[in-house]
Structure formats: structure tokens, C-alpha cells
Amino acid sequence: MSRLLIQGGRTVAGTHPVSGNKNAVLPMIAATLLTQEPVTLRNVPEISDVVSMLDAAKTFGAKVVRDLAAGTVTLSTPKLKTAKISAELASKIRTSFLFAGPLLARAGRASLPPPGGDAIGHRRLDTHFAGFKALGAKAVAGRKTLRFKGELKGARILLDEASVTATENILMAAVLAKGRTEIYNAASEPHIVDLANMLVSMGAKIEGAGTNRIRVEGVESLKGCEARVGCDYIEAGSYIAAAAVTGGELTLTGIDPEPFEVLAGAFRRFGVTWTISVTERTLKYVPKKRLKMRYDLGDAIPSVADGPWPAFPSDLMSILIVLATQTRGTCLFFEKMFESRLYFVDSLRQMGAKIVQCDPHRVVVTGPSQLYAGTFSSPDIRAGISLVIAALAAKGASTILNAEVVDRGYGAVERHLSALGAGIERGK
Fold first, then answer.
1. Quick one: which of 112, 106, 157, 164 has its CA closest to 135?
2. pLDDT tens per residue, range 273-308
3. Which of 138, 242, 376, 417 is deepest in the core (most CB within 10 A)?
């Protein structure tokens, strides 16, 4: 178990290159199994979840060549060795289940254990099952193994929830299914668009990605391609928050402007605004003298709630809660999607934050509060980086245990934050 040692009270400022999107690259790795030809992914982030996903791809027969310096990965799977994955690999990463769609499409079968991942709440697989069954697959859900088998045919599919991973899995299965598939109530996050663009480059026929209705005309086979992973706007939001709570000026490079339209409204409530250069693909945040909550009309206490895109993303809720502890005013946070996401606020309270937890889904935060250092354990990726950000703003030296959880979504976080002036190092 590794740990992060953080000396609070130092300003985080400078220029940070934004990594490739974790939530895009993982399904894109899975999608490489759909073709016998090589696929090269660019702007691949240096995170441990990528390593786990590549290890899983290797078990199916993929040959992997990775260039860390160039940020590229090339996968080639001329022949599938198996349509199964070990329980050990599946337990490391929830998106291992995204191999189900490509395996079913290419081999006509898939056998996977229930996936692992962060314990932020119940994340059902029913939508995946319903989609595969609609495409003609037989599905059996055992306690230790989930099995799918059958020849896929196009279908009209209404998802019972706008699940990101279910949309991705069904989309990857549908591109090689016979006939036309229409997916209604589809998720529309930017990483869905990244995946769809990659599949189109491979020869798939897809319309409507980025909307709640995706249309797919099945093709007989797919070819290799090169595809770029979009920027990780969750990482970007995390670094913006780190600069804001420590009073630093920050420039982010390598961004894709569109996702920040969704983030801007929520950050603006806390006095955090930025400017974007579309041509240079940069974002610049200049701090104000004081972070101050912007109340609703009639001086009503504002609220921030998450939801399916283009609502505010759940992955940034923990980060904004830390930002609220350093902002003058009161805000209600309503985490609608995951019942365990907010449990980490106990650690923030121990640091001195003024937080009332109303129930598993809602907390009220009043700031600003002087935070004090301590020793805390990272329960999941986003709570982990949130505790790191809180420690950067705290008085004294903090220790964040279980730091390898943060590594799953943030590459070399200590190196990047140190380059921005933070007092942070890795320990064992």
C-alpha cells in the first residue's frame, strides 16, 4: 500500500497538460477486439486502470505495444484466444465488463465474472443484459459467472436508464450485428462520442452519438484505425479546484472545449471562472481575491446536483464539496446517482469542514473553514483526489493512505502537483 505525504498551505499554480480521458480510453481498448487489424490509440493516460484493461485484453489474445513517452498504445488481435476472463483481472476494474459486447459480436459468446471497481454504490448490470437479449443473445447470470451467447441481430432497444457502460457495450455489440439497431435513452457523455468516432474510423455505420438516440447499421467486419482519446475533463476540474482552494493561477493545455460548457455553471457558483482558447486548446483560471458563493434569486441557498450528461457529472461532486469548504456561503449537494459517494465527508469533517450530512445522497456545506491536516484513507478514485485537494488547502502535513486508488484515475499525481508548486511526495 502506497501513501501520499502532503504539506498543506502551498499555492498550486502553473501549467498542466490534461491527460486523455479515463472514461473514454477503457471502452476504446475493449473495442479493439472487434477487428483483426491493429488499432492505435493516441493520448492514452498513464493510469493504472489502463494497465489493468490492457492486461485483460492480452488474455483474449491481443498483442499490445505501448509507448509511454508518445502516449500511444497499439493493440492487435488477429485471433481471439478465449472469450473468458479471470476473476482476478475482473475484480481490479469495473470496465472489464465492457469486453462482453466486443466478444459477443466477434466470437458469438462471452463469459465474465461480475466486475469490480470503486465501492461508491450499487451499479446494476440489468441494462446490459436487456440490451444483449434484445439483440438476440441468450444471457445467464450466475453468482460467479455472467454468460452470453448467440448470433446478434439489429433491434430497437429502449434502455431503462441512460447507463454509460450499457450504452457502450450495446453499441459495440450492435456494430457487427445483422441489420439496423436503434438505441433509445442512450447516454450522451463525451466519451460515448469518442468511442463512436473510433468505431466509425474502423468502418462502423453510426449516427446520433452524443444524443439520446443512436442508430447503427451493422457491418460484416471492421478494420484497424488510429484514434485519439479526448481530454479528461474530470482531471481538469480536479486541478482547477486544487488551484482555487490554494489561490493559484492555472493554465490547462490539450483540452477539448465542449465539455467545459457543462462544468462552467457549477464552478461559477463558487466564484471559479475561466477563459478558453479554442484555437490553442487551452483553459486559463485566474483566482479572485476571495471565493464567494453565488446564491439563487431571493438569496436562496444554491444546490448542485449530478445526473446523466449534460447534467453535472457525478465524478466531480466530491471535488466540488472540497471547493465549497473554502468558499464563503452555504450550498446543498445532491448526489443522485451513487449512495456511497458522499461517505468520505466524514474525513473532511475531521479536518474541520462545516458539513451536515442529511442522508446518503445529500450534504450541506458552509464555508470557508480552516482545514487541518490528518491521516486519511482513499476510499475511491474521486474521494481520494478530493482528500488530496483538501490536504493541499489544510494547515500542516497530511497523509493519504491507499494512494494506489488515486493512481487508477490520475497519472503520477505527485509529480504533476509538485511541478505546480504543491508539497507532495509518495511514500510506502
1. 157
2. 999 999 999 999 999 889 999 999 999 999 999 999
3. 242
Assess whether 193 and 138 both reside in one domain: yes
DSSP letter (8 states) at residue 265: H
Same domain, 288 and 409: yes
Which residue stretches of 84-125 are H helix? 87-92, 100-107
Distance CA 389, CA 190 (A): 25
Distance CA 154, CA 135 (A): 6
Any residues with CB less than 8 A from the CB of 358 and at least 6 apart, and which? 364
- Closest listed residue to residue 149, CA positions, set 201, 205, 175, 111: 111
Q: In which band, very low, low, confident or very high, does the pLDDT at 123 lie, cut at 50, 70 and 90?
A: low
d(CA 21, CA 190): 9
Peptide bond preceding 368: is omega within 30 degrees of 0, i.e. cis?
Answer: yes
CA distance 12 to 413: 13
Cell numbers given for 8? 498543506
Q: Packing angle between helix 126-134 and helix 164-174, nearest 10 degrees?
A: 20
Instruction: Please return the burial class of 190, using the count of CB atoms within 10 Å of its CB with bins 0-12, 13-18 and 19+.
Output: buried
Taking Cα atoms as reference points, which of 397, 247, 210, 398 lies closest to residue 323? 247
Which CATH number goes with the domain that contains 33? 3.65.10.10
**Angle formed at CA 170 by CA 169 and CA 171, multiple of 5 degrees:** 90
92 and 185 both lie in a single domain: yes
- CA–chain centroid gap for 418, Å, is 23
The model's pLDDT over 92-121, given as tens digits with 9 standing for 90+, comes to: 777 889 999 999 999 999 998 887 544 433
Cell (9 digits) for 116: 469490480
Specify the amino acid at residue 285.
Y
Does this model's pTM top 0.85? My answer is: yes
The residues that are catalytic are 118
Q: Residue 401: exposed, middle, or buried by beta-carbon count in 10 A (0-12, 13-18, 19+)?
A: middle
Domain that holds residue 87: 22-228
